[in-house]
Amino acid sequence: MTLFLCIDDTDEIGTKGTGELAEELATIIEGCNWGQCSAVTRHQLYVHDDIPYTSHNSAMCFEIENHANPEAIQQLASEFLLKHAAPGSDPGLCLYQYNEQTKEALIRFGIQAKVEVLNKAQAYQVAKDNGALLTEHGGTGDGVIGALAGIGLRMQGCDGRLKGQLQLDKDQPRYTVFDLLQHPLVDRVMDQHHHSLRCDLEFELKGKLKAIRWQHQNCVILVQENNYYHNAQKQHLKRY
């Protein structure tokens, strides 16, 4: 069964971002042979004056497959945050063992957190009622809200962007959809309407190549402009 791990509110301006810490934590877990970790996804939460955040109010989540020791993973992640979270941050950690009967409550909480101001009491109640392990590790601990929400949004399957940018092996002016599909982190290539594109379609690489989560897959979006395609830009990906 899949174990989800999400962290939020671990950074301050000028320190390592939450996404970078999540990637380091995933690497440590794999190094301990405690499971295989997926790529980290960034989930955008509600931006509001009543919600403190460093820059964008986003949570970072990844999945762990073939895990043998959830308790050890929780202990390791807790110690990691205590050691590496920035002074002045409000770190939250959530672990959740996938459960078909309780997942919808977490998904609803995640969707709420994109449009509403929520509080710790609400997060702890949802976690308690649905088997999520939710802990805070410094400051106000308000990061637990985003940590729980991030797992819900990851499970929802159509939210979030993969952290960082994808690199293509070859340096050339034009690529094909087939070239993209050879990347180990790309499951599907589609247009802005979420229609799959044919393998021989050519596109130009423009700036950063980013992937999103759509229907539980890692997807690259190509945009058509002036009779040619290029990879989606920041303004096209805001909705994810």
Explained architecture:
There is one protein chain. With 240 residues, the protein is α+β, with helices and mostly antiparallel strands. The protein folds into two domains: 3-161, Alpha-Beta Plaits (2-Layer Sandwich), CATH 3.30.70.2200; 165-237, no CATH class. The protein has seven helices and 13 strands. The strands form three sheets. Strands 1, 2, 3, 4, 5, 6 and 7 form a seven-stranded antiparallel β-sheet that branches. A hairpin with a 2-residue loop joins strand 12 and strand 13 (228-231). Helix 3 (103-112) packs across helix 5 and helix 4 crosses helix 5 (143-156). The longest helix has 15 residues, at 70-84. The mean pLDDT is 92. It comes from Ferrimonas aestuarii. GO terms for molecular function: DNA binding. Keywords: DNA-binding. This is DNA-binding protein.
